[in-house]
Design a protein that fits this description.
The protein is an all-alpha fold. The protein is 58% helix and 0% strand. The longest helix is centred in the middle third of the chain and has 20 residues. InterPro entries: Peptidase_M32_Taq (IPR001333).
């Protein structure tokens, strides 16, 4: 799902496809708006958000790291449940430079812990890294993929994913084995970091 959400729908190619549709649906939209304008607007890195689900893809992993570190501390017994609000606040300040005013903005914003889903948060960042590496493999095998996306043609990518990923389901015992089969190597976090650098360096003229 993150491949479609981020690799496709937040891409320059998708902005080319989407802009005419937006202009058709919203006649008052400035006629001077360009696909580049739309792409930039969809990929704004905001001041760090207190809320995980409202954060951008650059700062989102920090939200996950905060939760992961608190989970580890809780499971190891080095902190008590009552310590979570203060620890959350200090980690938000340390990692993202902002501090929640209420627990609703802090440690109670997610349902995961209340339903026993301890250890689930890291799967979100793992998913982003998997998506990035799988898309890189798709681009290598489908050279015209971004032209297709710009034209609103998603069938080849969907078929490729169906064959390479969806059809095998849980056949492979681990994510690394699936990634090796699909992309030629186990999960490589550096691929995700390269993606962020390649994308946001020109956007923000870094």
């Amino acid at each position: 799902s993150l491949l479609w959400e981020r690799m496709v729908c937040l891409s320059p190619s998708f902005s080319e496809y989407l802009l005419p549709k937006l202009c058709g649906a919203f006649p008052d939209l400035s006629s001077s708006a360009t696909a580049d304008d739309l792409y930039g607007a969809m990929n704004v890195v905001r001041s760090p958000s207190l809320i995980r689900v409202e954060s951008d893809e650059v700062t989102y992993p920090m939200h996950i790291i905060i939760r992961y570190e608190i989970e580890r501390a809780l499971m190891s017994g080095s902190i008590d449940v009552n310590d979570i609000p203060d620890l959350w606040e200090s980690k938000m300040q340390e990692y993202l430079g902002c501090r929640p005013k209420t627990n609703a903005e802090g440690c109670l914003q997610d349902v995961h812990w209340s339903v026993g889903a301890i250890g689930y948060f890291p799967t979100y960042s793992l998913g982003a890294m998997y998506a990035c590496q799988i898309m890189q493999a798709a681009e290598a095998e489908l050279p015209g993929i971004h032209d297709d996306i710009a034209s609103g043609k998603f069938g080849d990518l969907k078929a490729w994913l169906n064959t390479k990923v969806h059809a095998v389901g849980s056949y492979y015992p681990s994510g690394d084995e699936l990634m090796t089969e699909v992309t030629g190597s186990p999960l490589k976090p550096e691929v995700f970091l390269q993606y962020l650098n390649k994308k946001y360096t020109p956007l923000y003229k870094l």
